[in-house]
Amino acid sequence: MTKPTAIISGAGIGIGRATALAFARVGYRICVTDILETEGKQVAEEIKAGGGDAYFRKLDVTRSDQVDDVVGEIDKQYGGVDVVVANAGIAHKVPLAQMSDAKWDITVDIDLKGVFRMARAATPRMRERRKGAIVAVSSISGMSYGWAEHVHYSAAKAGVLGLVRGLAAELGGDGIRVNGVAPGFIRTAQSLSEEHSMGEARLVAQAPSIPLRRIGEPDEVADVILFLASDAARYVTGQTLLVDGGLTIKQG
Ligand SMILES: NC(=O)c1ccc[n+]([C@@H]2O[C@H](COP(=O)([O-])OP(=O)(O)OC[C@H]3O[C@@H](n4cnc5c(N)ncnc54)[C@H](O)[C@@H]3O)[C@@H](O)[C@H]2O)c1
User: Fold this and answer.
1) CATH H superfamily, domain 5-249
2) Tens of pLDDT along 83-138?
3) What is the Å distance from ligand 1's center to 1 Cα?
4) Binding-site residues, ligand 1, Cβ < 6 A
């Protein structure tokens, strides 16, 4: 049997990297993509060193031509993409008074339109093969959590929920499932950024108010992405699953 292929955006670090490692462990060929070349190549090397199958392609999710080329190469070389993980994202802190059109656009272009571009590129071949799974990475900020000075991020991540539902409705008849994950506070470069997010001290300080009493790790999101892409979730589509240690269901 030929190996299934997963393409993951923003897979050089953080949740994307953990997802690449998780899929590699269960036998996927991984197309590791990122704008971070050194980190992305390292992830592919790490997978290969562990006996897995992976390669790196530089891919900026704001560039339709790059997305189409990298996916087109998989279609030709390996028969098609089995799983898309649309993970790439940025979270820039911008108070509303300083929110220029350009600042709004770049976040929405990466965090929302980037997901759409990945799905658009992979689905023609998925439709022909009548199989495929797409998992998009949203956020608690798109689901239920207001994040001040990140309104563009919150709007883009809420948009991902609609995109997931719309795609699931449109593609279900072709055997393609589309789901999302909405991570809470996960220890990555994004959340540890003092400038744009919480930073180490504030992040750690959140732990006692989370029902599971700790900050999440990237592999804990990766495992849920793996589940949603797997046959174990074969009757699940159009859903976005919170992976937040219970943060958003806590009262008081
Ligand atoms: N860490 C958290 O607490 C948290 C919470 C909710 C949602 N998320 C989401 O999880 C996803 C992964 O983030 P992370 O926490 O691992 O952060 P991270 O900063 O470690 O990783 C983000 C990745 O996206 C890549 N990226 C950025 N712009 C890109 C572009 N234009 N094209 C391709 N790749 C690009 C980065 O190079 C990086 O590899 C993001 O969508 C993020 O918004 C994270």
Assistant:
1) NAD(P)-binding Rossmann-like Domain (3.40.50.720)
2) 999 999 999 999 999 999 999 999 999 999 999 999 999 999 999 999 999 999 99
3) 33
4) 9-10, 12-16, 34-36, 59-62, 87-91, 110, 137, 139, 183, 185-186, 188-191
| pTM for the predicted model, two decimal places | 0.98
Q: Write out the catalytic residue numbers.
A: 153
Which tens digits make up the pLDDT trace of 195-240?
Answer: 989 999 999 999 999 999 999 999 999 999 999 999 999 999 999 9
Radius of gyration of the chain (CA): 17
Atom of ligand 1 nearest to the CA of 15: 16
Tell me the CA–centroid distance for residue 173 and ligand 1, in Å.
31
Burial class (CB in 10 A: 0-12, 13-18, 19+), 109: middle
